[in-house]
């Protein structure tokens, strides 16, 4: 025992009282969190606008990925505790993680398969397969290292560094929040940049490439400190022991199901013939809490839609705040900012005030109120959605098509004309006849559920359809090739590809040889424009160009989302933070169930998005709010009948019954002798025991909060 203790307490290099090794761990955690949250911030928009999935499919795949990220920590803990140890698990799974991020970044380069140079990938299967592979690897990596990094950092401290350990976990948690906050601010800005070899598109490669680079940096930094770490061997995974104990209890109970066998107080007591009573008592605590967890996934069902449904909602709103432009995916930063504000207010002001009023605001009551706040957040989101729906264009249903005509067939004046609005058609195949001499007739097949413009050039026999997107497009009515800023040359009577542009005022230069002119145009969020260029464009100094607004800009402001973010964050503080404290106080050694509630919540979103298919988005928000209210009522009833326990007292009683206390005291005395020989009195032994207890509790509590 003495050799083991000395090995564990070997001296490490220190700086300002801290092990130098923890600086590598802190930097590693900051880079990893930046990588994960940066990638996740723009993920749903990548699905929606790069892979061109609809809102439901984009939401489903997003939540499937998040659910996988919350399930894989169990696998990572088993690998670390049973086979590789924490250090090797972090190294190997970080490599998998980095490969996944790089794969994801490569999948966003549209020029790889854009053979016709129209800004859209020609082989979507390639990009989808590559991105799905990348997401699976990322989920394995981020989830696998999640339960290891904080605990590995705690391993680096000695018994006399309890104060430094406390500071380490505070800095560690600060790095998590700093990484997530900065990445959620920065990566949407990178996404909004324009790039492309042939056409200018939103810069998803940069938005995913920077998180990939940060993950590589995270791995390199962690490996750099390898020689300074204290590395512990695998200690065996408690989860496997728990499963075997439960399995034996069930089998033994079934074997003795006859009435001639006396009943036992709890069905887990049937395992005491083979397993330790302390383990059985701990499993009872865990099962009691897990039963209470059954309704909890519904909270996460609503909460995690900040990154999917609410982000998609923000794409239909205006982010012009005057002094700055806010991207739709940047609205997610409101949550961590409010968290940093509300947590101290709740802890220092609200909860003490409620307590002084004599109200019994127990942890389970706080969690119930937190769920109700989340339900109110979705009611607020539904009200915002109703306002948005009033301003949105009347898009065709999946069985309809919409058509607008752009005509420049006046042979004498060569002027451009566009119909005022889209015609909605319930049939896909149309025939267009022009009253020319001779009459020109041409058949077209429209896209169901989409908008198209019929371009009729000066040579009517060449008329053609183009699909309408949220972007800008130029139609060249000039008699020769036309060069336009940031676009390839456009042939006569041809159109440019739709090109995405950032919000605000943009300048364009039209050029043909020595002739040129320029004009400016202000672009709004979500709008679509077609610019019709007549043959007289240079003689009129661009004044004769015609602007057609295919889709009006968004008019509902993103600031209207702030109330729903405030409500959901208030709910998070009451539900999540309190739930972690409750879980630790009632079952301090088994916390995997809390993670599983988050994973199950994301799976529920996936199911509703794919199977619900409600015609209006606001109706889906109301559905989720109603479900959470119903679940909170069920949870409040379960909480009413729940009896709080003291795990430490139960464990101490069992140890006393088993006669384990003398052995524990002997072990404590042995460690005290090594630390400071000559001081063996009971007071010092207890002091050292308390310090060690604080260390273990802090390590475990911060690890779980990090999860």
TrEMBL record:
<dbReference type="Pfam" id="PF00854">
    <property type="entry name" value="PTR2"/>
</dbReference>
<feature type="region of interest" description="Disordered">
    <location>
        <begin position="661"/>
        <end position="684"/>
    </location>
</feature>
<feature type="transmembrane region" description="Helical">
    <location>
        <begin position="203"/>
        <end position="225"/>
    </location>
</feature>
<feature type="transmembrane region" description="Helical">
    <location>
        <begin position="285"/>
        <end position="303"/>
    </location>
</feature>
<keyword id="KW-0769">Symport</keyword>
<feature type="transmembrane region" description="Helical">
    <location>
        <begin position="165"/>
        <end position="191"/>
    </location>
</feature>
<dbReference type="InterPro" id="IPR018456">
    <property type="entry name" value="PTR2_symporter_CS"/>
</dbReference>
<keyword id="KW-0571">Peptide transport</keyword>
<comment type="similarity">
    <text>Belongs to the major facilitator superfamily. Proton-dependent oligopeptide transporter (POT/PTR) (TC 2.A.17) family.</text>
</comment>
<keyword id="KW-1133">Transmembrane helix</keyword>
<dbReference type="GO" id="GO:0015293">
    <property type="term" value="F:symporter activity"/>
</dbReference>
<dbReference type="GO" id="GO:0016020">
    <property type="term" value="C:membrane"/>
</dbReference>
<keyword id="KW-0472">Membrane</keyword>
<keyword id="KW-0653">Protein transport</keyword>
<dbReference type="GO" id="GO:0015031">
    <property type="term" value="P:protein transport"/>
</dbReference>
<feature type="transmembrane region" description="Helical">
    <location>
        <begin position="621"/>
        <end position="645"/>
    </location>
</feature>
<dbReference type="InterPro" id="IPR000109">
    <property type="entry name" value="POT_fam"/>
</dbReference>
<feature type="transmembrane region" description="Helical">
    <location>
        <begin position="64"/>
        <end position="84"/>
    </location>
</feature>
<feature type="transmembrane region" description="Helical">
    <location>
        <begin position="34"/>
        <end position="52"/>
    </location>
</feature>
<keyword id="KW-0812">Transmembrane</keyword>
<dbReference type="GO" id="GO:0006857">
    <property type="term" value="P:oligopeptide transport"/>
</dbReference>
<dbReference type="InterPro" id="IPR036259">
    <property type="entry name" value="MFS_trans_sf"/>
</dbReference>
<protein>
    <submittedName>
        <fullName>Solute carrier family 15 member 1a</fullName>
    </submittedName>
</protein>
<feature type="transmembrane region" description="Helical">
    <location>
        <begin position="124"/>
        <end position="145"/>
    </location>
</feature>
<keyword id="KW-0813">Transport</keyword>
<feature type="transmembrane region" description="Helical">
    <location>
        <begin position="592"/>
        <end position="609"/>
    </location>
</feature>
<feature type="transmembrane region" description="Helical">
    <location>
        <begin position="367"/>
        <end position="386"/>
    </location>
</feature>
<feature type="transmembrane region" description="Helical">
    <location>
        <begin position="90"/>
        <end position="112"/>
    </location>
</feature>
